[in-house]
Sequence to fold (98 residues):
Amino acid sequence: MPILKNEIKYIDIPAVTEKFADSVGSIFFDGQSSRIELCVTRMVPTTGAEATAQRYPACRLALTPAATIELFNNLQNLINAMHQQGMITKGEPPAEAK
Fold:
């Protein structure tokens, strides 16, 4: 008998920490799983007038094809909600912070 999605009980684990990311480093599919690297950008302290930044990996996800599709669908719903609230315009990249 197959297990249906609505029969699986979700149990939270508060010890799992949240990771902050401000960019996507890389994404690729190897035929078995999707690998997604999320990154964070940090400013490098300098004494000069010109600021520099470096990007570091914050999280690496390895997803099954089914989880990749589920992530895509959930992100699509999020984008649609943000568009309906006027937070973003579809088809245009967000304005970068200066």
Remarks:
- Residues 20-84 form one domain.
- The first strand starts at residue 23 and ends at 29.
- The helical segments are 65-84.
